[in-house]
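Weekly puzzle thread! Below is a chain. First person to post its structure in token form gets bragging rights.
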Amino acid sequence: MSILNEANIVLNKNLENKTEAIKATGQILVDNGYVKQEYIEQMLKREELSSTYMGNFIAIPHGTEEAKEAVIESGLSVIQAPEGVDFGGGNIVKILIGIAGKGNEHLDILSKIAIVCSEEENVEKLVQAKSKEEILQLLSEVN
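Winning reply:
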């Protein structure tokens, strides 16, 4: 199973708030067999510790250290929310990338995502993408 495929991507999602956004991001990982259900609770706990908002309209929700045993295998979920969702303090998120990393793989995955998302042009392409293929292509280095 690859880290990211079309089943893990949701386009044009309208999200009410940060909690709903994190739960939706985690549910994709659950539904596709990357994590157990309790991982979502750990994602919410992680958000309480410090925001997973990364700047540049990106948030990268992921679990706490304790969530490791809930990870079945490394995977990513991507939600495109063109309307934006408030992550607090006026930080608007339009792309959510959920991460579940087996062992220490999440650090490698995070660094690859950071490289792609540090380019404003790439983020804009993710927000404007009309197909799951476009998103897969933009995040191909991560897979």
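Puzzle host: Confirmed. Bonus trivia for everyone else. The first helix runs from residue 18 to 31.
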